[in-house]
Design a protein that fits this description.
Elements lengths: L3 E17 L2 E15 L2 E7 L9 H9 L2 H5 L4 H7 L4 H18 L3 H4 L8 E2 L2 E3 L4 H10 L5 E5 L6 H10 L4 E5 L9 H10 L4 E3 L9 H4 L6 E3 L18 E4 L1 H4 L2 H13 L3 E4 L6 H10 L5 E2 L17 E2 L2 E2 L9
Parallel strand pairs: 5-6, 6-7, 7-8, 8-9, 9-10, 10-11, 11-12
Antiparallel strand pairs: 1-2, 2-3, 4-14, 13-14
Helix pairs in contact: 1-4, 6-7
Length: 327
């Protein structure tokens, strides 16, 4: 039977404005792919991201361009070769994984070596703001074991110190979203070390990573915007200590599994992160993250309303997806 493909644009309001160094948003704009065959349907969600030149329309067009190939039975490996990494390929790849699982009656978790997936401790994100506002948010969530704190201004010392003081029992990830520079990097690293920060994510703009090679640092540094696929990793050895794997960057679970394997072989720590999306986008990432050093899959916790069938969160634990959601 010929496969069918549908693509739907959806918008989910956020519980509060979400601000990083590049700007603010009040909703998550996502695209949901559904691939059907023989009475089964697989779904995948992606989040088009302007930083990578994506819009909802451009990503939808890229998905639609694959309609004929999907109908003819294109495999995930063929998809990997036919499309560039990014949100469009992610939605299609995850929909194919879900379809395969439902058609064969074999869960994705079992197929990727995570047969008994467990709940994971996820970070909870504190958006960028003035130090007092960020401290108030950190204090509100100080019972969470892991906080991800958005920074990325020329002078974040007061923000780092305020959040660390407000949540003294929480481990802290600082995410600069490429917002620091060679001029202020060393100063921020000293403050982060003094405050006991666990990890710093993408301090410098992608392409200007070389400054990390010569600088002494007591806090590990994680690549995000600089690390999309397995092919990026050789050039990051000696610059970064860890890499943040996101399905929308890698272009799906298939590519993300290759990236994770290559990262481990090269000695990188692994974070599995997300864009701000729904439980459908997080579900495959929860399975990918079963052996991750850091997990940042709090997207649904930032929404005013998640999908009707959603992941279960209990405190800072995110539970594996049920088959009705994905996989």
């Amino acid at each position: 039977m010929v496969r069918t493909l549908s693509v739907e644009a959806e918008r989910f309001a956020l519980a509060a404005a979400f601000t990083i160094s590049r700007g603010s948003k009040t909703e998550a704009a996502v695209l949901t792919c559904t691939i059907g065959q023989d009475g089964n349907a697989g779904r995948g969600e992606c989040v088009p991201y302007a930083r990578y030149g994506e819009t909802v329309d451009s990503v939808r067009d890229a998905i639609e361009a694959m309609r004929g190939d999907i109908a003819r039975g294109m495999s995930r490996q063929e998809l990997l070769a036919a499309m560039k990494p990014g949100a469009a390929r992610n939605a299609l790849d995850c929909a194919l994984w879900d379809l395969e699982a439902k058609a064969a009656g074999v869960a994705v978790a079992a197929r990727i070596g995570a047969a008994s997936p467990r709940p994971l401790e996820t970070a909870y994100t504190i958006p960028l703001g003035e130090p007092e506002a960020m401290a108030a948010q950190a204090r509100l969530h100080a019972g969470r074991p892991l906080l991800k704190v958005k920074v990325g201004t020329p002078d974040d010392a007061a923000r780092i110190e305020a959040v660390a003081a407000a949540a003294p029992q929480s481990r802290i990830i600082l995410d600069a979203n490429e917002g620091w520079s060679e001029d202020n990097l060393a100063r921020h690293l000293v403050v982060a070390a003094r405050c006991g920060v666990a990890l710093i994510e993408q301090p410098l703009p992608a392409g200007r990573d070389e400054a990390l090679r010569a600088i002494s640092r007591a806090v590990p540094v994680c690549a995000d915007e600089s690390a999309h696929t397995a092919g990026d990793l050789d050039g990051l050895v000696g610059l970064y200590d860890a890499v943040n794997i996101k399905l929308d960057k890698a272009g799906g679970l298939t590519a993300a599994l290759d990236l994770r394997e290559r990262a481990r072989r090269l000695g990188f720590g692994v974070m599995v992160g997300c864009m701000v999306g729904t439980s459908l986008a997080m579900a495959p990432a929860v399975l990918l993250a079963q052996d991750a050093d850091f997990v940042d899959l709090d997207g649904p916790l930032l929404l005013a309303r998640d999908r009707d069938i959603a992941l279960a969160y209990s405190g800072s634990l995110v539970h594996p997806p049920e088959p009705a959601l994905w996989g």
